[in-house]
Design brief:
about 375 residues, alpha+beta, Phosphatase 2c, domain 1, 11 helices, elongated
């Protein structure tokens, strides 16, 4: 079971910084995902710093294998109190989840999470832990067992309190209103990804806000338990050319989505399996070649230049409309990404004046794998052949 996780956020109207902060890590060797959503008091830079501090501290605790419950209790008891409002400087929701479904959720101050299974909202029991130092702080601890196709939604109170005081929503959208929007969307699209669902919900909340001006920072953290979407990218000729046929067949027999990056690699597949290549020049530019087509393969693009530009887009999050963006979308639409990287030097790209990260294909792939794992929480496997 794969844990698909994503968070979408919108700043308070007329603010330059997010007052909410999301942080998460995936531990492939442990089949584990940890995530924290914190809501800083107020808005702007001060709220951002406080929320960031809370989320970062919790992640550090959990990275060191500290119990999530004990970690959250330490945070709850150590957060300062605003002298003006008399409340905590930040609230949080945290989840420690394994791919076998075992999960622990801890909440302090944020709206209760929403757990959906087969179109029904589940109501799990929780343990209440009262702060020893602050009477108005208490932590809710849930130990739950997730199943395939379950959804778990966390949010900051900007989502549930949107439009508060209006005729239609005198008490705000509230948790019940958010649930209705979620269930309606899941009925329309049962397999919607966590990324698309969280983006959709934040957009709907923005539409509800008077004049589409959010009065508070709004965050939606979405988790979806499902079968992993796997992909395989074959790039570069194998070191031992006598094994070309073996790797060509291995590539074509892969059950998930398949992509080829590199003209030489595409020619090897075409030659060994007798699959013709047709070129589409419509996406080509002066700086980046276009894409090609081969039967049974989802994407065929150029190698070093396209990989380098794709890495740049993954790091910046600001792609242009070209072959690298298509490859980026291909990668981000996958949960488990496998790279089959040929170790033979491609003389067509050898240039001693180029930086080593650009010259050598395997270094580009290593950087890409790191970004995909750390920024996008993907599982990445790299095999050099």
């Amino acid at each position: 079971m794969f844990i698909d996780i994503a968070c979408s956020q919108k700043k308070k109207y007329n603010q330059n910084a997010y007052g909410d902060f999301f942080a998460s890590n995936r531990y492939p060797n442990m089949n584990r995902v940890v995530a924290v959503l914190s809501d800083g008091l107020g808005s702007g830079i001060k709220a951002n710093i406080l929320a960031c501090m809370t989320s970062t501290m919790l992640l550090k605790f959990m990275e060191n294998h500290a119990d999530i419950e004990k970690s959250c209790e330490i945070i709850m008891n150590s957060l300062p109190v605003c002298k003006v409002r008399g409340i905590s400087y930040s609230t949080f929701s945290a989840i420690d989840c394994y791919e076998n479904g075992k999960a622990k959720i801890v909440e302090e101050g944020n709206p209760d999470f929403i757990w959906i299974r087969n179109g029904e909202v589940l109501k799990p029991e929780c343990q209440i832990i009262q702060s020893k130092d602050f009477k108005n702080r208490r932590m809710k601890v849930y130990n739950i067992k997730l199943e395939k196709y379950d959804r778990v939604i966390f949010c900051s109170d900007g989502a549930t309190q949107v439009a508060m005081g209006t005729k239609q929503y005198p008490l705000g959208l509230e948790r019940s209103g958010l649930i209705k929007i979620i269930l309606n969307k899941l009925q329309q699209n049962p397999e919607i990804s966590s990324t698309d669902l969280s983006n959709y919900l934040v957009h709907q909340i923005e539409l509800i806000a008077p004049n589409r001006e959010l009065k508070d920072d709004t965050s939606i953290l979405s988790i979806y338990c499902r079968d992993p979407r796997e992909s395989l990218i074959f790039t570069g000729p194998p070191f031992h050319s006598e094994k070309d046929n073996y790797y060509a067949k291995t590539f074509m027999e892969f059950k998930g989505k398949k992509a080829i990056s590199g003209g030489t690699t595409a020619n090897i597949i075409s030659r060994e399996l007798n699959i013709p290549i047709s070129t589409n020049i419509s996406l080509g530019t002066s700086k980046l070649p276009g894409i090609s087509k081969m039967e049974g393969i989802d994407l065929v693009c150029e190698g070093i230049l396209t990989l380098t530009k794709t890495l740049e887009y993954l790091e910046s999050g600001k792609p242009e409309d070209n072959a690298a963006k298509i490859l980026m979308d291909f990668l981000l639409d996958s949960d488990v990404i496998n790279f089959l990287v040929g170790a033979q030097m491609n003389k067509a790209h050898y240039d001693p004046n180029l930086p080593i990260e650009i010259e050598i294909r395997k270094n580009i792939i290593k950087q890409m794998a790191k970004v995909l794992e750390e920024k996008y929480l993907k599982k990445v496997n790299v095999q050099f052949v």
